[in-house]
Amino acid sequence: MSKVPILTDKAPKPLPGMYSQAIVANGFVYCSGAVPMDPETNRIIDGDIQAHTHQCIKNLSAILDAAGSSIDHVVKVNVFLADMGDFARMNEVYMTYWGAVKPCRTCVAVKTLPLNTDVEIECTAIQVAKQKL
Questions:
Q1: Are 114 and 122 within 8 A, CB to CB?
Q2: Residue 31 has what pLDDT?
Q3: Model's pTM, two decimal places?
Q4: Coil, helix or strand for 77?
């Protein structure tokens, strides 16, 4: 079995030598956690938990697209919140994505997220096409 790293400039760059934006292996796309960072400025976008949730999913969408998949083919999502008090507002945005059949999901509160942001989202999807080179 091979594993193929995914890298797109349409999502924030991974830290060099530490991790990949995603790995394609055995017909699945395993995405690293996405924070609400603008890929052009490499800064967390302004806004609240809802704006941040949109940006996380936008970043994941770009990575999935580069890997030959999409949000509609995601089978598992992990959401990390800095404050469980943001759960309902995050869900208002979250529910607008992922297609008609929502993926399995875990949502947990954690002590601290990278860059002190309020949300990070990672996912696993089915690869439906060859990755874009």
A1: no
A2: 98
A3: 0.96
A4: strand
Q: Distance (Å, rounded) from C-alpha 92 to C-alpha 83?
A: 16
pLDDT attached to residue 129: 86
Distance of CA 24 to the CA centre of its chain: 15
Question: Distance between CA 66 and CA 54 in Å, rounded?
Answer: 19
Closest CA to 38 of 27, 54, 26, 17: 54
What is the C-alpha separation between 100 and 53, in angstroms, rounded? 19
Full strand arrangement of the beta sheet holding 3-6: 3-6, 22-25, 28-31, 119-126, 74-81, 104-109
Asked if 67 and 22 touch (Cβ cutoff 8 Å), the reply is yes
Tokens encoding 82: 């800095």
